[in-house]
Amino acid sequence: MNLDQLIDYLGNDSEFQKNITKWLVFDSKAASYVDFPENLNPKLIEALRQKGISKLFTHQRETFIEVQKGKHVVVVTPTASGKTLSYNLPVFQELLTNRESRAIYLFPTKALSQDQVKEAQDLVSHLKEDIKTFTFDGDTPYDVRRTIRSAGHIVVTNPDMLHQGILPHHTLWIKLFENLKYVVLDEIHSYRGVFGSHLANVIRRLKRIAAFYGSHPQFICSSATIENPSELANNLIDEEITLIDQNGAPRGTKHFLFYNPPVVNYELGLRRGVVSEVRQIARKIMPTGAQMIVFARSRLRVEILTTYLRDVARQLHISPDKVRGYRGGYLPKERRAIEKGLKNGSIQVVVSTNALELGIDIGQLDVSIMAGYPGSVASAWQQSGRAGRRQSTSLTILVSSSAPLDQYIIQHPDYFFNKNPETAQIDRDNLPILMSHLKCAAFELPFTEEEVFAPDITPQLLEFLVDEHILRKTDGKYFWMRDIYPADEVGLRSTAAENVVIIDSGHPEHRVIGEIDLFAAPEMVHTDAIYIHNTVQYHVDELDWDEKKAYVHEVDSDYYTDAITKTDLKVLDILQETEEAYGLRKTFGEVAVARVTTAYKKIKFHTHENVGMGRVYLPEQEIQTSALWWEFPDDLFVDPFFKESVIGEGLKGIAYALHHLIPLYIMCDISDISVIPMVNDPFTHKPTIYVYDKYQGGMGLSKKLFAIDRAVLSAVQTHITTCACKEGCPSCTGPVIDGGLFGKSSALKILNMLKLEMD
Amino acid sequence: MDISKKLKFYQSTKTKAPESAIPASLKVLQSHFNGEVVSEQAPYLKIVRAYPLDYPPSVQLNLLTKGILSTSIPLDKCLFFDLETTGLSGGTGTFPFLIGIGYFAESSFKVEQFFLPDFGREYYLFRYLDEILPQFDYLVSYNGKSFDLPLLKSRFILNRVQSDWERMMHIDLLHISRRIWKDSFENITLGSIEENLLNRQRPDDIPGALIPQAYFTYLRTGVVHDVIRIIEHNYLDIISMADLILILAKIEENPAELNDPSALIRLARLAYEQDSALYFDKVWDYFEGHHQAIPSQLLCWRSLKAKRENDWDRACTLWEELLNTQEYFYFAIEELAKYYEHKQNDFLTAQKYTQRGLKALKLVEELNPYHPDLSLMNALEKRMLRLSKKTKNINC
Ligand SMILES: [Zn+2]
Predict the structure, then answer these.
(1) Which of A15, A238, A470, A717 is 20 to 30 A away from residue A199, measured at CA?
(2) Helices (H) and strands (E) in chain B, counts
């Protein structure tokens, strides 16, 4: 049975069909080819011909032309569409005419950069020119660093290395900075939230250093499909952006199936588990010999699914060696072997975390199965993009869990047909982040009085640092006046200078697996919490608050912990407010949030039973951040149905669904935001729902929500309405055990009165 | 970078700098050290002192630099330098606020120190240094290769002063000192060298780690007490370097200058590695001349030297002697086995030594089973196997 026959077969399999909520077929699309630009260097044309490329895709040519005009560009492309060539062409064109020129290629992670280096080097080998591409990262040996600094035409690195290893030592990189023509920022959609806000400031520093050496680099960005690529690119590099989003790459027919596991317990709203469903589906597909990738959301799940699918292989008389797991934590050698096996066909099934979502070259496979929604439409497209050789048919199956976001997506497949509504937000002027980078910048070069780092506030910030004896002002310049190296104190993945470090004591070298803001630490990594990092479960053995260290070990737990946290929210300032229809008032402002975690509950997965409790003794944490809140007018609640407790349940239900659905519009993790329902809010004296960014200084999330709240609330309303449950469930207004019996009905009644339907 | 841009920057800094009067604290320092305040636009303090020191016109450091400086070094072509900075971790934000240089001239050692009483005062000083640099061919420092010179280069670039540093040879006295005294002193600092070789103490010295903070305090308060200590510290560092290079030159000439067995053994090793038989013999003669028991380490180097010279009788005698030591027992076993196997084709004797080694090793293993030297065991067993094959072949 080949893939087309399998698709027919699945189409006729009534057992399978019952669970398919939508079967989308994206028709094949022919490539839009264009000739090489007239002025493209003949050597490049020759090298491309040798590689079998005689024409370009439209977006590749357009990128070349716009960059030649001196524009900063962002190219929006799906996977496997020749994105790399889009930025290699203008860069190599420049290097062929002016060998002194230099370029920086910036990739969000190290793994991602490897294939790009290979591709650039391959082009060089066809050009037979002395153009050097070097990777500069933490693993680069010291003896070759000197060569890279002076002789590397293209320096491939990541934001962390640029921040800590290159910019503070810019005098060693004169050649690079004097001749810096291009900066390539790949996969910019991954630069959102804290990481993106940091990167925007690293770019400010980069531009400042480049200007000191007399260069003004052009930026070439690439992004997956999101709603606001230009806005994001503009926020990151602070330059006017030319958007290139007409993709010319060809595509085979793509079948995109939405699979919702059947409900097994209506009262609890429980569906059959993703893992066992994926096993059933794989069993149907494996006999066809189709090459398949299964994306699991956690490393643990990768291991479980790999074991299951090897068993299935055995039953089907397929060698179990053709089924392999792939995740971070495997040795590089193992990973290379798997990548090779996928390319040459010796491996048929790979089960992976999102580690294989992008960048790494594994060729194109036939089938992509997502064991659970990966959290964003952009990610889902990238995972789906792993299937689909250019001209042939491919199959993607999204198997959803019972999480609200999964359930919303599975019932609204139009997100994949129409424009992706997800926006990537950053706040480059977040005060703690900005301040950190202002210090790094002052270390790198003294500031002059009239210099602008962040608009409007630079002089005040500099004066503040003078008062703190961190800078010294003399002769109209601000000089670094500390004996430390400030970049060492700033990590690009968190806002606070002081974090709790999470240490895996099960690992032989007590590996640090991550850091967490002080503000979030008490509820996330209190002693005996189940902490989920990169979707792996860890048990927290001890939180040493004085040392700011949490010791954890990996577990396979059947419960999670839910911290009981008292939140005290004070409004500090109102920045924007509007009266909505039906008296609903929405406000954007600044708030102080004090939180103290006092206890936690152990909640069983799936059934959401409370299976235990514990106490927590930790100090109160306070942050100032931005927030959005809605006040519900009293006259909404004249119906005697609305007892105070019923209003409470309704608000709680709305808050639950809202919290889970915000990532539909604003790319973030649900732990980046908090949603707090208040029946009688002490500030507004009305039923109120607050949404705030869980970062000191805010991260632009609630600010964006203020602008698009009607769309989000209306999604919440639709979602709760269409959920199959009666009184609320974990997929809509939250587990019934948690709320009362009126969560769903009250929430719906409130939302319906708001007349949210978009006009 | 083209020159017009460079000039533009120079202009803008020059025109914007307001006429700064000389602060009182700088005047205090000036009179204390009898110095001179230089450059009206950006005043800094220059202190010149002469340290009386007899010196030869040139020195040799061939062996001690492992042949990197093979020709003789004219001392008047050496520029000694040392920086005091606002941080110890490097990077462009670290500011050298005190730059000390020294050179041999007119039968003494001249020290010039430049104290910068605030940030942003380097430009005119760097121009001055850039002017005098062509008079010298060598830079001499203590740990300057990894710290002071990169930092100074970085500051020159920040001030857009281009100097040709690459032209000059860099003699880092730390590297040479470490080569000699690694087994003698706990830390090879200039301080320990002064104490042990120059018999000089620094009673009121300011510890290096406190220097950045002391300068910041001066910037805020204008109190000069610690700055005086820093200037003295820097002065002592520089004159110690001058003393040190002369001591090194004497050691290069004759190791017996050193009355330090640990250092002498390191020199013997250096002589062996550099294949300098003459120098090696000088070390050897020192021990014999002083009727001292010859350290086994030295015997070991001597045996290797004999081996290299094909002086097998001598080598074997030494190895037999080394069989009585603990540290070199297995070394001697292996060397002897090798010798009898490959040079004498006397497999039985080779076997005898190998067997002796294995027996000792197994005994050690029995006594301390936790740390068996597996690679040694392996090597000996392999040799044993090969040897028994070879003896069998002969028997057949
Ligand atoms: Zn429901």
Answers:
(1) A470
(2) 15, 9
Assigned fold of A33-244: Rossmann fold (3.40.50)
Q: Which of B11, B14, B40, B92 to mutate to test the interface with A (most CBs of A within 10 A)?
A: B92
B355 to chain A, closest Cα gap in Å: 40
CB contact under 8 A, B93 and A442: yes
Delineate the domains of chain B, giving CATH numbers in brackets. Answer: 3-253 (3.30.420.10), 259-395 (1.25.40.10)
Q: Is A419 helix (H, G, I), strand (E, B) or coil?
A: coil
**pLDDT for the residue numbered B12:** 45
Helix (H) or strand (E) run with residue A600 in it? strand A585-604
Please tell me which residue of chain A has the smallest CA distance to B212.
Answer: A483
Compute the distance from residue A535 Cα to the ligand 1 centre, in Å.
Answer: 24
Distance CA A135, CA A566 (A): 48
Structure tokens at A662: 């915000």
List CB contacts (< 8 A) between A213 and chain B. 1
Dist. CA A90–CA A69, nearest whole Å: 11
Angstrom CA distances, A583 to A47, A547, A635, B113, B224, stand at: 66, 50, 9, 76, 69
Query: Does residue B96 surpass a pLDDT of 50?
Result: yes
Amino acid at B297: Q
User: Mean pLDDT of all residues in chain B?
Assistant: 88
Q: Give B333's Cβ-side CA count (13 Å radius).
A: 25
Q: How far is the CA of A654 from the centre of ligand 1 (A)?
A: 12
Q: How far is B221 from chain A (nearest CA, A)?
A: 12
- Taking the C-alpha atoms of residue A230 and residue A420, their distance in angstroms, rounded to an integer, is 14
Query: Which segments in chain A show pLDDT lower than 50?
Result: 759
Residue A295 CA: distances (Å) to CA of A260, A285, A397, A494, B80? 16, 15, 10, 27, 63
In this complex, how many residue pairs, one in chain A and one in chain B, have their CB atoms less than 8 Å apart?
81
Question: What is the distance in A from the centroid of ligand 1 to the CA of A402?
Answer: 9
- What is the model's pLDDT at position A370? 96
List, for residues B274-329, the tens digit of each pLDDT value.
Answer: 888 888 888 888 888 877 778 888 899 999 999 998 999 999 999 999 998 888 99
Q: How far apart are CA A151 and CA A134, in angstroms?
A: 9
Residue A389, CA distances (Å) to A55, A362, A381, A393 in order: 19, 12, 15, 7
pTM of the full predicted structure? 0.84
- Helix or strand holding residue A352 (H, E): strand A349-352
Interface list for chain A against chain B, based on CB atoms closer than 8 Å: 168-172, 174, 178, 213-214, 442-446, 469, 472, 474-477, 479-488
- Give A325's strand partners: A351
DSSP E strands: which ranges in A260-338? 263-265, 270-271, 292-296, 323-326
- Which of B86, B119, B158 lies closest to A483 in CB terms? B86
Q: Tokens for A144, please give them.
A: 């070759």
* C-beta atoms of A485 and B86 within 8 A: no
- Spatial distance between the Cα atoms of B269 and B273, rounded to a whole number of angstroms: 6
If 0-12 CB within 10 Å is exposed, 13-18 middle and 19+ buried, where does residue B293 land? Answer: exposed
d(C-alpha A242, C-alpha B301), whole Å:
71
Task: Please answer whether residues A554 and A504 qualify as being in contact, where contact means their C-beta atoms are separated by less than 8 angstroms.
Answer: yes
Q: Which fold is adopted by the domain A3-27+251-418?
A: Rossmann fold (3.40.50)
B42 with A476: Cβ contact below 8 A: no
Q: Flag if B5 and A214 touch (Cβ within 8 Å).
A: yes
Alpha helices in A13-102 (DSSP H): 14-17, 42-50, 58-68, 83-97
